[in-house]
Design a protein that fits this description.
single chain, TIM Barrel, 37% helix
Length: 361
């Protein structure tokens, strides 16, 4: 397993980490999976054997049951693993059971520690944006957890770029611990993060954790043009996370994954993950699985080496359009691009040919 720094921190995390949203099966999360303690132990055994050192969970997954399962499954081997969890999503009936207030953050961190059966969380991530709570209150609450030893590192998830920057600026102004990472949805099927979030990560030294790196199964190869998805499949029905905005492009992407997989004699799953592992600022892919066999298939992606030509084919078939102000910047000041800009405009970034480029104004 490859180890990578988590942003500018000194923490080394495995290039693939274990996502646990499929454990518990409570409420809507039952549609993702309903694994219990024995399932979790089997997957964690597999991960440890492969060199994976990071497990990612959240207080909202199955109303806390997921954290309880993870805590039971890691008992006796806590020191072999890094634990990441999250706070901020709705976990109860009142308005104080959500968001990023001091009240909610501190209470939920203590609840997560109890459910996980540990004395500290290695990476504590704010799970969603809260525009109603002052950022100063959120940062101060997180800093108190770091100062008390309950949390080692901080991250954010599902923020827009300006929201991440507000958090970083506020922490700097307050002399508090900054975010070292952001956990975002970023796949071959959904490359919107390349407009702002990936350049921000390069510029500010944040590590990227990609959740659902196979787009919830869309990139596994089982969704093909003209073929009925397997029974029980979530996507292309009433499940829309991530949304499929261009079904034809999705099928084109999967066709290319299948073709390159045939060239390398590997499943398309590994090709999709290998492409993403090679993207800028990528620290770890948070991979979930219903079965040990699915997990083993994903873990083997670290051994896949894509050629420049194969990467270019995947880039071309998945490129989104270049939005404003990026088409204007490329037309007027390309010679002034720095490293962060080039994650979008350089090789492998959004294709110029697919952009509607009017005259400069």
């Amino acid at each position: 397993m490859i180890l990578r720094r988590l942003g500018n921190s000194g923490l080394q995390v495995s290039a693939i980490s274990l996502g646990t949203m499929g454990f518990g099966g409570v409420g809507g999360f039952g549609r993702v999976g309903a694994g219990g303690v024995e399932d979790a132990r089997a997957q964690i055994d597999l991960c440890l054997d492969a060199g994976v050192n990071l497990i990612d969970t959240a207080d909202a997954y199955s109303s806390g049951v997921c954290e309880e399962i993870v805590g039971e499954a890691i008992r006796g081997r806590r020191d072999e693993l890094l634990l990441a969890t999250k706070v901020g999503m709705n976990i109860g009936p009142t308005e104080n059971d959500r968001g990023l207030s001091r009240h909610h953050i501190v209470r939920q961190c203590e609840a997560s520690l109890r459910r996980l059966g540990v004395d500290h969380i290695d990476l504590y991530q704010v799970h969603s944006w809260d525009g109603m709570t002052p950022m100063e209150e959120t940062i101060a609450a997180l800093e108190s957890l770091v100062a008390s030893g309950k949390v080692r590192y901080l991250g954010c998830s599902n923020f827009s770029a300006w929201q991440v920057m507000k958090g970083l600026w506020t922490a700097d102004r307050m002399g508090a611990t900054p975010f070292v990472s952001q956990q975002i949805h970023y796949t071959l099927q959904a490359r919107e993060a390349e407009y702002e979030l990936v350049p921000l990560s390069i510029d500010q030294g944040l590590g990227i954790l990609s959740w659902s790196p196979l787009a919830g199964g869309l990139l596994t190869g089982k969704y093909r043009r003209g073929v009925e998805p397997p029974e029980g499949s979530r996507h292309l029905t009433d499940w829309n996370e991530p949304p499929v905005r261009d079904g034809e492009q999705l099928y084109d992407i999967v066709d290319e994954l299948v073709a390159i997989g045939a060239e390398l004699d590997v499943p398309p799953v590994r090709v999709a993950l290998a492409w993403l592992m090679g993207r800028p600022a990528m620290s770890s892919l948070v991979v979930g699985a219903r079965t040990p066999e699915q997990l083993a298939d994903s873990l083997a992606a670290v051994d896949v080496v894509l050629s420049d030509e194969q990467r270019a084919r995947l880039d071309a078939v998945s490129n989104p359009a270049l939005l404003y102000p990026y088409w204007h910047q490329r037309q007027t000041v390309p010679e002034r691009f720095g490293p962060a800009d080039l994650t979008l405009h350089g090789p492998g970034g959004v294709a110029w040919e697919k952009s509607a480029v009017p005259l400069a104004g």
